[in-house]
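Before relying on records like the one below, remember that each one covers exactly one chain. Contacts with other chains, cofactors or solvent are not represented anywhere in the record.
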Amino acid sequence: MRKKRSNKNRMFKLILAEKPSQARDIAIAIDDNYKTQRGYILAGDYIVTWAIGHLVELYEPEDYDFRYKRWRLNDLPIIPDEFLYKVKEEKQFRVIARLLTRKDVEAVIIATDPGREGELIARLILREAGWNWEERPTYRFWTSKALTPSAVREALENLRPVTEFDRLYLSALMRQWADWIVGINASRGYTLIFGRGGKKEVYSVGRVQTPTLKLIVDRELEIKNFKPVDYWLIKATFSKGSESYVGTYFCIKEDGKEDSKIYDEDLAKRILDEVRDKKGVVEKIERKLKRLAPPKLFSLTTLQQVANKKYGFSASKTLDIAQSLYEKKYITYPRTESVVLHEDQLDEIREILRRLGARYSEVEGIGDVGSAGKRVFDSRKLTDHHAIIPTGKLSSFDRLSEAEKKLLDLIIRRFIAVFYDHYEYESIRVITKVGEYRFLSLGRIVRNPGWLSVYDFGIDGDNEEGEREPLPYLDEGDSVDVTRLKMEKKQTEPPKRYTEATLIDAMVNAWRFTEDENLKKILKECDGIGTPATRSSIIETLIKRNYVVRKRKDLIPTDKAVFLVDKVRDEKIADIAWTAVWEKKLEDIAKGRCRDARDFLKDITSYVYDLVSRLREYGERER
């Protein structure tokens, strides 16, 4: 506990956290004898206060001019000359505003969530309250670690000038303004033109939500229009002495690839007749030693994908659980895109592993942590935050909810697994020839289970690629008997519906959805559409607005969604690739790679003018 000064001429630094719980964590680290006031906490030489999420929000169109309360096509596009804001939560905002005017407050420390949205929340509050960070001392509290007392004190000792984050704030502003311009004008335009019924159904359109919706609708249309084709597989059981193995008929296609499907039933029957009760010969045996590296540490995106595959958690549920675990100090900051750690974290990681060893015996199988090298420790590949890792806290583990235990266990096991050896196995391919026909058998012998020994369910719930058919010892040239034949009739299957795991993967890998090689190259350099922190809310928004329904893990579009996508299909606003390009421009603004951030907004505004013009023309033609 710090020594208390005389109140005479005493000056304070004001810390602005994002939530009351985070404010308390910071206050405890400063002075465990802190005093709680209405809307803030006194802790030593600090006053700690908090936002409650977005205390300040953008004007609605009718706040600029009441006539916009009624939706009219002739009023579009609505583009404010200057974007204005209003206070959403008056009570807490007044507390913060009063604190900022106190004469004994000498500086402000922004301690909202360390990311784009957190920066925006704090800056808008300060701006509306009249605090000029360009002229008055203002600093940024920035850490990826859980807000333990030691992490808080470390961050307070390493405060950074707020100007270092001006570009991040500018990127957040441009994102917010662009989403307003697109969302307000496109939603009103499409609703006015295409809204059905006496009370028009509202068609919400957004810069990220609409291309995401198009992915889901297009997949559903693929499934609906899919025409299944019959094919047959032939499986033969071969015996050598008392041992046997199974092989599947295959042929080599014109493109050189192996194919086991037979699309002609008569041909399948002929092959069956020609190999029945015949002898075969082991024509070829291929043995390869393969090594599978441990998986990478979790980013929020990969954590959401694995939690959806293994436990059926929605992306939103995974984020909520991760945020809860972070606030309870079990894991580090969850809203991260990184899958690596700082190179100077070696000692910290060893200590975390030591603490985890009390519950996880798998820790004993770890050798030298440093041998993981750049695969785990690579400062050059870090974004604002390192990968999600456990803090080593295990106390009160049994008091966590079942969902929290499951997610924490995923994170801990992934963390332990990255420091294990590679999984090594011998892959065996056996080709058995019967007359002119060939049959393929696949086998596997595990040489070193490596990191897979940390799990009891394969790779985070998925079995690794390849079959595990047990094979007897064979030599090339061995003679074998065909003892059993089986012809299976099957049908080609349509693509699977998106789950949240596969949809997030599509959002991240937007480059897959364009044939333009130059655009594909650009998109591979960015992280697709949305951000790790917003993708889950986009999916929830689509469900809330009656565009998508969940059925078990599947995401299924409604008739409303199919109708809208049909109308918006050819627009950039529905093109995932173009939306990803816009997202990359926002990233360029945040990284200082953009000369004039407002060029991005001009592009968005110009597009919206063109969109509204096309909607008007369509409306006039349909009269």
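The mean pLDDT is 92.
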